[in-house]
Specification:
Helices cover 10% and strands 32% of the residues. The chain is mainly beta. It has one domain (5-231): Alpha-Beta Complex (hypothetical protein yedk fold), CATH 3.90.1680.10. A hairpin with a 6-residue loop joins strand 7 and strand 8 (113-120). The longest helix is centred in the N-terminal third of the chain and has 7 residues, at 11-17. It is globular.
């Protein structure tokens, strides 16, 4: 599952991480990206170009774009066969740049759940595997949308959720986007849980619970309960 994430790095840092890709120069940093909001994606091309789409995939055949609210994630194991994602999996793959994502973990002895933020230990941005689509209304208006693919959680993520975003390794980014990569088995081979050694998890403030909060305080470290300190770096 990936229901919130961050992309706070500026265009220069993104350009350093994605040197062969076109970056939107005035891309604003985001600390609390939520479903139905605009998100940045890299589509295929030479070079791959950044575009802005809405988070929550709306298939071309949908009668109502509200269906996208339930399509923010797609399971990597079944996306190639599911009617909502099948065409995009084979022809409209994208990368979703990010520098972290959120989950909500249980608090021992309490019914409430507390947010945590997963991020690379070195602070570098990375990219989720995504799919994008085009939807046209009756008046000819165009809506471009995307979903983030998920895989089974690794050991780092498993205490908080049984799924995690599919992260494409740097050396496989252009392969994932390429129209020349057509075999389902080759594509699914790129969608696997990260080992976790390069990532860490931080307990953060409940400020992120409200979608209208979008500032550095969302990823600021919050004290962990004594029973959970071993989960965090």
């Amino acid at each position: 599952m990936c229901g919130r994430y961050s992309l706070a790095k500026d265009a220069k840092l993104l350009a350093d991480e994605f040197p062969a890709f076109e970056i939107i120069a005035k891309l604003a940093g985001r600390y609390n990206i939520a479903p139905a909001q605009p998100i940045a994606v890299f589509k295929g091309g030479r070079p791959p170009a950044m575009d802005i789409v809405q988070w929550g995939l709306v298939p071309p055949w949908a009668k109502d774009p509200a269906i996208g609210s339930g399509m923010i994630n797609a399971r990597a194991e079944t996306a190639a066969e599911k009617p909502a994602f099948r065409a995009a999996f084979h022809r409209k793959r994208c990368l979703v740049p990010a520098d972290g994502w959120y989950e909500w973990g249980a608090i021992p002895g309490q019914k409430t759940r507390h947010p945590v933020w997963f991020h690379r230990r070195d602070g570098r941005p990375f990219s989720f595997a995504g799919l994008w689509e085009e939807w046209h209304d009756r008046e000819g208006g165009l809506l471009m949308t995307a979903t983030i693919l998920t895989v089974p959680a690794n050991a780092l993520c498993r205490p908080f959720h049984d799924r995690m975003p599919a992260i494409i390794d740097p050396e496989n980014r252009e392969t994932w986007l390429s129209d020349e990569t057509t075999r389902t088995s080759d594509l699914q081979a790129l969608l696997r849980p990260q080992p976790g050694n390069d990532f860490a998890v931080r307990r953060v403030s409940t400020r992120v619970n409200a979608v209208y909060h979008d500032d550095p305080a969302c990823i600021a470290e919050a004290p962990a309960p004594p029973q959970q300190t071993e989960l965090f770096d």
